[in-house]
Write a structure and sequence with these properties.
By secondary structure, the chain is α/β, with parallel strands linked by helices. Among the domains are: 4-230, Rossmann fold; 350-485, Transcription Regulator spoIIAA, CATH 3.30.750. 33% of the residues lie in helices and 14% in strands. The chain has 20 helices and 19 strands. It has a 6-stranded mixed sheet. Helix 15 links the parallel strand 17 and strand 18. The longest helix is centred in the middle third of the chain and has 22 residues, at 411-432. It is globular, with a radius of gyration of 24 Å.
Length: 634
């Protein structure tokens, strides 16, 4: 058997697998009793850009009796070498197999990585199906936005965490201490996980289906299993990560980042993140500037990203940007997400430091009617004003994101995308001449759980292809660049997004037949998935292309994300009348459901829908447990 170091000499990008990066933490394996592995089911280059893993890694490794290590999906050349040599998937810090950890946690950000989850379990020496794991195997946990419909992966994951993990990981560590001290069996461990708010253990529930094949209900089969699991929310954002790991190779986001704001209440009807990450919570400019100073000192980077679902919605974005530019004059600051208006351009311009190349805007739809239908509160005047403002200030490129296949969309709406691109291109020529570049990028709409569009049908490839063809031809004629994504990719994403437990059999069959890295075009094979679904007797089109009745039970109804189903139902009905709804962060409460959480303080940036999860007074501080009851306000 070859050693790990020998394998590194045979593969591309060996730095993906070495560990030992600056700011990584390697504790003594033999003397640290509690062992967590955080796994990202994609390549190191992608996973190391995920801030959530960095936050949890830091929190856990601050505990003296806990070690937390990382693992990522090995690229095909490394997997081939590992299987040939019989080497299991190892953690980067102590190079231990995943099977030797107490808890193995996966971050689910994108449904097209699900086969990688199975592959990493198999490579790590852990039985892929949860029911096949013995007393000596780790507890396998998953969280992230993908967990908000856990059912497709419910056969492979022991427990899911719904919501924000900063508090949960410490509570899990507390339980792990109890398990080790008391010698709890595997079943006892799973039962005790039910004590933690926000935890779902699929093996304690049974799915039922009607005679017509529709999902009917998810029934608890354990007396302690709750019928509904409420997501975890931190009321006040914890201190920002200040000592992130510095990768050995360039990653997707090769810079430091500060999360300036969490949550978004703009209410775009297609946007899952805008629903499941409510309410809006902000960091102060002083906190962001302080964290930036530490980040620059601890990493050596000279570029900072201000992370938020909509950065220019921050109530103090201008003083924040001014403070950063004054304190760190050489720092390059980026806003990955902005509103489509001239104010956002002004903010982007303030931090551009002379480099004004391409500005990204996301109008999402080509007509005002359709933007109203999806509640994207952007007018044509906003878009054109922002574009002209950018070109006037020296920007030479505008990139615009749109979706096709949205509910109620017509070919006229799609033609509006070309018209908008042409008008923006004309503005560019007026101000910067031949240097003006305009790029239109479209994605196919994928209906997501916990959004008003969760009941919508996804358009078929036959319906989408004429739209792509028209856009390609007319954009070329208008001098506008055009990119799009494959309907086959979007179709599978839709099936995995809204599937029930039966879809898990299709995932398993596809993985058995070689499906992995499905998010990468060079690896995705639609034929493998078609054959897999046929083998297990699943019609994937039934999950993707069928419009649901609003009273139909959904496989994710047991997940309380905070926004109520009745609110989403009302928003779905408003699509047909093109009715819009304002942002409650800057106006009155829209009664989305978040108001049912308790409000205990007026933290910066938190509206009247701000939450407090569980009792903040820990009645059993010594055991580091939350009681989990909601505090009643008088």
């Amino acid at each position: 058997m070859a050693s790990i170091n020998q394998l590194l000499a045979r593969v591309s990008k060996p730095a993906r697998y070495t560990g030992g990066e600056f700011n990584s933490v390697t504790k003594d394996w033999s003397t640290t009793p509690l062992r967590f592995a955080l796994c990202y089911p994609d390549a190191y280059d992608i996973g190391m850009s995920n801030m959530g893993i960095g936050i949890l890694y830091d929190i856990l490794n601050r505990q003296p009796d806990v070690l937390c290590e990382r693992a990522f999906a090995p690229w095909e050349d490394m997997e081939s070498e590992m299987r040939r040599e019989g080497l299991p998937l190892w953690s980067l810090e102590n190079r231990k197999p995943l099977s030797e950890f107490d808890v193995v946690g996966f971050t689910l950000q994108y449904e097209m990585t699900y086969t990688n989850v199975l592959n990493m379990l198999d490579l790590g020496g852990i039985p892929v199906r949860a029911k096949d794991r013995s007393e000596n195997h780790p507890i396998v946990i998953a969280g992230g936005s993908g967990a908000f419909n856990p059912e497709p992966l419910s056969s492979f994951i022991d427990a899911f965490v719904f919501g924000e993990g900063e508090d949960v990981v410490l509570e899990l560590a507390g339980l792990l201490r109890e398990w080790k001290a008391g010698g709890a069996s595997r079943r006892e461990r799973l039962e005790q996980l039910l004590r933690l708010p926000g935890i779902y253990v699929p093996s304690f529930y049974e799915a039922h289906y009607g005679s017509d094949g529709h999902f009917a209900a998810l029934e608890p089969v354990h007396p302690a299993a709750p019928a509904t699991i409420r997501r975890r929310i931190v009321e006040v954002l914890p201190p920002p990560l200040q000592r992130p790991i510095v990768p050995f190779l360039q990653t997707v986001h090769d810079r430091v980042a500060v999360e300036i704001q969490r949550g978004c209440t703009q209410g775009c009807r297609f946007c899952q993140a805008g629903m499941i990450y409510r309410p809006t919570r902000e960091r102060t400019p002083e906190e962001v500037a302080g964290a930036t100073a530490q980040l620059l000192s601890n990493t050596g980077y000279d570029e900072l990203s201000l992370l938020s679902l909509s950065a220019t919605d921050h109530s103090e974005i201008v003083p924040m940007v001014n403070m950063l530019t004054e304190r760190f004059p050489a720092l390059k600051v980026g806003l990955p997400s902005t509103r489509v208006d001239s104010f956002s351009v002004d903010v982007a311009n303030a931090i551009a430091k002379g480099k004004r190349h391409t500005l990204t805007l996301a109008p999402e739809a080509g007509s005002q009617r359709l933007r109203n239908a999806i509640n994207k509160l952007v007018s044509e005047e906003d878009l054109l004003g922002a574009s002209e403002n950018a070109f006037e200030r020296g920007w030479t490129g505008i990139k615009m994101y749109f979706m096709v296949g949205l509910p109620t969309e017509t070919m006229e709406d799609v033609e509006g995308i070309v018209e908008m691109g042409a008008r923006v291109k004309a503005l560019g020529k007026k101000h910067v001449g031949g240097r003006a570049r305009v790029r239109v990028s479209t994605s196919n709409h994928v209906p997501k759980p916990h959004t008003p569009f969760q009941w919508a049908r996804q358009e078929t490839a036959a319906e989408l292809m004429p739209k792509h063809s028209m856009l390609r031809e007319q954009c070329r004629a208008a001098g506008v660049e055009f990119t799009w994504n494959s309907p086959e990719d979007s179709f599978l994403e839709s099936v995995l997004s809204r599937g029930d437990r039966r879809v898990g059999e299709g995932i398993y069959e596809a993985w058995q037949n070689g499906a992995k890295f499905d998010a990468w075009g060079e690896h995705f094979n639609a034929g493998v998935w078609q054959r897999a679904f046929a083998t297990v007797g699943i019609d994937p089109g039934w999950y993707a292309h069928r419009e649901r009745d609003t009273r139909e039970p959904m496989p994710w109804d047991h997940v309380d994300c905070g926004v109520t189903k009745s609110y989403l139902r009302g928003q779905w009905h408003d699509v047909l009348t093109n009715s819009t709804l304002g942002d409650c962060h800057h106006g009155s409460c829209n009664v989305c459901g978040m108001q049912k959480f308790d409000t205990l303080s007026d933290s910066p940036g938190v509206d009247d829908c701000v939450v407090k999860l569980g009792k903040l007074i820990e009645l059993r501080r010594g055991a580091k447990k939350f009681e989990g009851e909601m505090v009643e306000l008088v």
